[in-house]
């Protein structure tokens, strides 16, 4: 009798949070297992909660992942060291991932960061043109890019086209990152490339491998993040290498 009363008390205390937890973090079966049966060792449910938590964490981080890069460019009033071609290819990859995720009806926690990364990356593309004295081309980029997004999400575009775009993301991401890596190597420095943004992107893409497998099971998306993590890792290593080289040069 006492156990039943204690159980009812726990249920009433958690009732205000049940809707939030079940909607965003776990299915109702996991909620019951955790908070009614007190089985906190359910591995499958723990994986779901971890994946959801990581997903929302990545989305929150993505809101400012490229903000240091934008602020660094605006502070220096320069886009030195940044490749516009690499940014264009990255924007193309983001466009495909966003459209594919929406069309496939994946949960927002599995792809939401691409929306915020898109807004920040297109801002970087605009600033590159602006600081080159080509502000008109920067505005044209904004109009064309968001026009393409609307077109891809409209009923006019067949689903197969969006799927092909996502499949093309793997070489697109690899080429875009390698263009930036080649630019860094050629210049002998990383210019206005923000170390904070680079490392946040690397960490986020690594975490996305797990969350994508867990939440969507989509191999196309998973392979995209594997390639993205590898290429982001190369640029992160370059940031460390040229940063240390710069310190040595100043010391000499």
TrEMBL record:
It holds the Pfam family PQ-loop. SMART domains: CTNS (SM00679). GO terms for biological process: oligosaccharide biosynthetic process. GO terms for cellular component: membrane. This is Mannose-P-dolichol utilization defect 1 protein homolog. Signal peptide: none annotated. Belongs to the MPDU1 (TC 2.A.43.3) family. Required for normal utilization of mannose-dolichol phosphate (Dol-P-Man) in the synthesis of N-linked and O-linked oligosaccharides and GPI anchors. It is found in: Membrane.
């Amino acid at each position: 009798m006492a156990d039943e009363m204690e159980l009812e008390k726990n249920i009433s205390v958690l009732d205000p949070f049940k809707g939030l937890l079940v909607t965003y973090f776990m299915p109702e079966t996991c909620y019951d297992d955790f908070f009614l049966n007190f089985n906190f060792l359910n591995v499958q449910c723990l994986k779901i909660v971890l994946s959801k938590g990581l997903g929302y964490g990545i989305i929150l981080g993505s809101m400012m992942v490229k903000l240091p890069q934008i602020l660094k460019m605006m502070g220096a009033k320069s886009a030195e060291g940044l490749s516009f071609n690499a940014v264009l290819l990255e924007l193309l990859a983001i466009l495909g991932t966003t459209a594919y995720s929406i069309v496939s009806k994946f949960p927002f926690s599995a792809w939401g960061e691409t929306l915020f990364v898109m807004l920040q990356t297109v801002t970087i593309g605009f600033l590159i043109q602006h600081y080159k004295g080509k502000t008109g081309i920067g505005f044209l980029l904004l109009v064309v890019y968001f026009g393409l997004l609307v077109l891809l999400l409209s009923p006019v575009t067949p689903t197969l086209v969006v799927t092909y775009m996502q499949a093309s993301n793997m070489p697109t991401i690899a080429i875009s990152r390698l263009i930036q890596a080649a630019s860094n190597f050629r210049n002998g420095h990383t210019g206005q490339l923000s170390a904070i943004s680079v490392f946040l992107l690397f960490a986020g893409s690594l975490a996305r491998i797990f969350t994508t497998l867990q939440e969507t099971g989509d191999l196309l998306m998973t392979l995209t993040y594997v390639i993205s993590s590898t290429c982001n890792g190369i640029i992160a290593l370059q940031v460390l290498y040229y940063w240390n080289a710069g310190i040595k040069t100043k010391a000499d």
